[in-house]
Design brief:
Length: 171
Amino acid sequence: MTFEIRPMKLADVVTVTLVDAIAGILVPWGPSAYAGELQKSSSWCWVAETIADAPLEYIPPFSAPMETIRYAVGDRALIGSLTLWDLAGEGEIANISVHPRYWRQGVGRALMLTALAQARQHNLKKVMLEVRASNEPAKSLYASLGFVEDGRRPGYYSNGEDAILMSKVES
């Protein structure tokens, strides 16, 4: 599968919100939250796109005023996103999601590498993130990129699950 990473556009925010929900983010941001991030100089947002090799349908799994997004074979389909913040000179991965159909195909890694390159470009020596304790594939990806566990927030998520704090310090 081939895909590309590009900066998020305002036209992407509804689809990004749907991908977040489909990917299992417990409290996904709404379109207005992403639209706000696109206006900030201390925030960078990217999306991953591929050419759909099968029809895709993104149905809002919650009651929100959003329409279903449909991609036909051959359409450019948005399949993932990542938001990076500059918080007082340190980076934080605020959100990352990939449509489950495209898990373990390098999309999350490519999004993370894009964010880490941006962090280096802006001299952010440390990049942090939170991940659900049960999300072994994500924890493995982050560890393979040099992130180490450096804390835990018990009961952090809305379902009572712990958050694992991870960070990577650039040398």
